[in-house]
């Protein structure tokens, strides 16, 4: 145990994942006194907690890397095309050591409140360790997928076996050998862990509410030649910090032609062989034109039928009622083939809803299942969960949750009106989780540091977005989404997975975000009030 810290500083950074680490680095470089706070015992954020078997990034490692340090880029060598969680965590740890960031971070410490003091123009941040830190600026780098969604399954408290959530996995290896295991949830986490759990469990039952589109990763070791070949692409990303390969809607989407079905099919075959999320770049209008997207859906369903022996199971595993790519597409290794194993079963919760958890298993409306362990791959209170849990109180005593009662809003996804000097890294209204979140973090951190640097140079101490600018931005975010197929799925992008969460399409799927926010900065921070 350590004594509580009572301190004043220039900036508090909450979270030591990829957003927080870089924020600490840049703010220190700016000459600020920075204090980092992290709930975990180490750096890594999402990659610290998500240790479930099979946890792996769905973006190629060479892109899922910081671009801001050439030295770092040269000295770090990824071993696989898609890095697994342990390697990504090692990367985060390496960054923390290499740039000597650890000494600035208070680990095992959770923020319990942050209060704005108008007279002192400062935030008072309190933690569960009794710390009280007064800072002129607060940077919330608390992550988009950091608060697990644990559905209230009826009777769950009775279950005698262990219950694991993929986003809060224990730090020791879990041995499922000889056990009857259930996995609930078939999003990216479920799709990744199911084939791994099937390797050791004596019986695996997957409880699926909504099937997902999944594409083979075709993961492989990275050769030196692969790395050299990726150089120009990486340089291009540094330039734009926008990742077109994954979920972003390109600017030519709206007037692109609809190619003949055979042409589309042939292209999908090619991309399927290549593996990974590239399928979403097949045609510029894949996320905007239902006619184009429909063919992609047919293509993936056809592949599922080809991979799964039992026709009823294949049918249940085939997504039907939403377009491909508007929930984050899954990238798997052997997911569908896992259902061909004799000890693996799928339960379609739409056909037979879960009625209760018992001491020894699960019951649906038609059957009961004896179980030794339960794995919840049920996702996150995404994008806003961590912010909502921190008791943030801004100007006039209004809490962030009150301000967001009708749904989250933030000007440019960076700042919330009523909450001066509080920056959000990858907040709602920014591209955040669409594409590559590391690049999204870099983009935000660089904007925030440039902003603070320019304020200091001009002797300004307070920044807050105008309510109207914020409103107009969120209307633009909604408009950008409405021009695409994104709203056609009940996804966590719009908070649909959390009961009672107001439905607002949170990520920005429009074009040229980095350019837009740079322009706003150039125009003397248009839409912000600075003094
Ligand atoms: P996701 O993508 O939110 O997936 C969660 C899964 O859990 C999804 O299949 C849900 O079904 C299911 N779920 C959630 N609650 C329940 C209940 N109550 N009963 C049954 N099934 C339930 O989270 P992941 O962790 O897989 O992935 C998150 C992101 O991490 C991913 O997008 C990548 O960016 C990496 P639903 O679809 O809601 O019907």
TrEMBL record:
Its cofactor is FAD. InterPro entries: FAD-binding_Monooxygenases, FAD/NAD-bd_sf, Flavin_mOase-like. Signal peptide: none annotated. GO terms for molecular function: flavin adenine dinucleotide binding; N,N-dimethylaniline monooxygenase activity; NADP binding. The keyword Oxidoreductase applies. The keyword Flavoprotein applies. It comes from the Bacteria. Keywords: FAD, Flavoprotein, Monooxygenase, NADP, Oxidoreductase. Pfam families: FMO-like (PF00743). Belongs to the FAD-binding monooxygenase family. PANTHER family: L-ORNITHINE N(5)-MONOOXYGENASE-RELATED (PTHR43098). This is NAD(P)/FAD-dependent oxidoreductase.
